[in-house]
Amino acid sequence: MGSPPSASLKQNNLIFLVFIVILFFCSMPDKANLCSNQSSVNPSAVPYKSSSNISSLETLQLDGYFSFDHIDYAAKDFGNRYHFLPLAVLHPKSVSDISNTIKHIFKMGSTSKLTVAARGHSHSLQGQAQAHQGIVINMESLQGPEMQIHTGELPYVDASGGDLWINILHETLKYGLAPKSWTDYLHLTVGGTLSNAGISGQAFKHGPQINNIYQLEVVTGKGEVVTCTEKQNAELFYGVLGGLGQFGIITRARISLEPAPKMVKWIRVLYDEFSKFSSDQERLISSKDSFDYIEGLVIINRTGLLNNWRSSFNPKDPLQASRFISEGKTLYCLEIAKYFSPDESDIMNQKTESLLSELSYISSTLFLSEVSYVEFLDRVHLSEINLRSKGLWEIPHPWMNLLIPRTKIIEFAQEVFGNILTGNSNGPILIYPVNKSKWNNRTSLITPDEETFYQVAFLSSAMPSSTGRDGLFHILAQNQRILDFCSKAGLGAKQYMPHYSTQEEWQAHFGLQWEVFVKRKSTYDPMAILAPGQRIFRRKYLSHDAGHL
User: Fold this and answer.
1) Which helix (DSSP H) or strand (DSSP E) does residue 331 occupy?
2) 416-439 residue pLDDT tens
3) Residues 6+ apart with CB under 8 A from 408
4) What residue ranges of the chain have pLDDT lower than 70?
5) DSSP of 432-451, one letter per residue?
């Protein structure tokens, strides 16, 4: 056993080492240029685990625990396109578990390649909450102070970063209160949506969710636990909001509340001209006493559209609605809602009729419904249950979200809905305007340089193994055509929940805010430990020169 290894064994070991190195670089998120351009990335097929890193982590004194085996789930997300296997999953029971873990990695310095990603309800689209051979933190296991609700003059709720918005809704309703701004889907974590923005049909009125936060508790990339507000540690406060997880992990948030309504008047109408549709949307978001929720949908070549609506809505004119033909048309659906309490229904109906009388929709397509506030806000969950029952939830979701300046939306619609998207769509297409005056420009979120801009969301689902129009390759190519058009036409569009392959693209995305973003990174996460799945910074020391990251 003491004899030296043979030459052939040395050669085999060398070949194996070269293979591992090639595999490693081809599976790194920020090394896409070294590998073929794939629509799906799956380096978890050959897991590699560093025993020294595992031993190092096992020395930590934690309230929770690490998992090193059977952690494939942490390499999956809702997008179902990127699969980067971590070294370990941390199940924290306290904020100190998160702090101690990050502090431990930070102290290891540049000798360690370990990174950390916070994972909420796994609704990321492109591996943003994954950490290749790093540590994924299961935020939903975080325990701490229970949700605390303050009912004073400025009501708020203190919630964990791992709490789901649906649970916050149910808890705050016990006090007759609720958050002001939502996302369309509520089974998401607080930390997850606040790291992006949190946008829905209330954003024109209250701004996104990141505009409705009083205070945060954050664990930085140095492992420091920091409480921050707009006046205390303000740079971290605004940096973390919309900061894509780059500066810290949100472990607690103080969320603004308002008196909660009990009922919702839910309305849908159709347009066959985009100019009338967008004009009405813009009028509504500018009105002082408008609806409480305003969104829109693009519907392409949908057969029996109004008949499908009848399961949830009632037509104002059943006879005329039955004669309406949606097949072969591109239609625009205005979806609006008015909140009310049962004893205010008469006043609400008068206001609703007055607002509707000023709109230019197709009269035969007016559909109405009255539902509870909870039923309205949690409406997408019913679709989830249905899709899961059919095995259509855990499939690739090559979603793309864009923010388009108001002055360019007609040009955008003509090209995208007239020329690029033909035949039908592979999922809902949301489109609605918001007022920038309701958005705080000190956060990390990047928006177009106009007072009013549109959120346009292409929420496509790709059928596994399909090579047709509903396949992943076709949808990705279609998305790229839209991005190429926006770029060549100089629309000034910005991606929401952005995804880029190179730092040059990220720099172009942030524009003049890039230097601020880099400075915040060097201050709060100088070793680039956090959120590697965003593919913005590489895991090494960041110099103060933004050109040498």
Assistant:
1) strand 330-340
2) 999 999 877 899 999 999 999 999
3) 489, 491, 492, 493
4) 1-50, 540-549
5) EEEEGGGS-TTSS----SSS
